[in-house]
Design a protein that fits this description.
Layout lengths: L12 H26 L13 H23 L5 H33 L7 H25 L5 H38 L8 H25 L9 H15 L9
Length: 253
């Protein structure tokens, strides 16, 4: 009915989403505090250009990517088209910010005469970014742009969901490797003595893991998945009929 209020969210979902956002904002603040207090801050045309890299990767590849994954859980009763657009927009913003972070580290290395792409962190990080870009392109091709049939979308959707979660986990792993690498490069002599910078950076790592676990839990709860609206089911049947030539009463795939 038009005047009926939307159904309530499942018990516990709002609390977990709120915790995820609190963790996300805290890890961003912790990243800024680490870079500002112990690494001199952030600037582009200066020796501090490298610090743009960890800030952008945490913001883009972790926080915004995680929020993009949560869109279909949070906006459960909004139109599918609007939810899909927000999902794609957040992923696009995450990609742009991550690209800025990658450019920053390559330019910083070139200025300082440091070799590129030799560490495990760089391998995992670049793999995460390239695969994330590929995931974004495939997602746009299958779900945003016209052309893909209903059956193609249905077959690709499980892979899209799985690799979305897998790339989110890989991004967090790459960040953890990067934190350890920065600490070993900068405070290797004092790291084992529980110096404040080391403790703060380790805390950032714990926050990254906690954020990933909470987001992952929300995403893997089957009873928290976004239910299709009645009009979406009708549109889905019409789309299947148009793309595959089946009648609405035909058998299911």
């Amino acid at each position: 009915m038009d005047g009926a209020p939307p159904p309530a969210s499942p018990a516990g979902l709002s609390a977990y989403v709120a915790v995820s956002q609190l963790l996300g904002l805290t890890l961003l603040a912790t990243t800024g505090a680490w870079l500002g207090r112990y690494r001199g801050g952030v600037a582009w045309h200066s020796p501090l250009q490298f610090n743009v890299h960890p800030l952008c990767m945490v913001l883009g590849m972790v926080f915004l990517q995680g929020d993009a994954l949560l869109v279909y859980r949070v906006f459960r009763h909004e139109a599918k088209r609007s939810t899909k657009a927000l999902h794609a927009l957040l992923h696009s913003l995450a990609l742009v910010i991550a690209l800025i972070g990658i450019v920053a580290v390559f330019e910083s290395h070139r200025t300082k005469g440091i070799r590129d792409m030799y560490s495990l962190h760089s391998w995992c990080g670049m793999a995460a970014f390239v695969l994330y870009l590929l995931q974004w392109l495939l997602g746009c091709g299958f779900f945003l742009l016209p052309g893909a049939s209903f059956s193609l979308r249905s077959r690709y959707k499980p892979q899209h969901v799985f690799f979305g979660i897998a790339l989110f986990a890989l991004s967090i792993a790459a960040c953890l490797l990067g934190i350890t690498e920065m600490l070993l490069f900068n405070i290797s002599d004092s790291y084992s003595h529980f110096v404040p910078e080391g403790v703060l950076a380790n805390t950032l790592g714990v926050l990254l893991v906690a954020f990933g676990l909470v987001v992952g839990y929300v995403l893997t709860r089957d009873d928290w998945k976004r239910p299709p609206l009645a009009e979406e089911l009708a549109l889905s049947m019409d789309f299947k009929t148009l793309t595959e030539g089946e009648s609405p009463g035909g058998g299911s795939q």
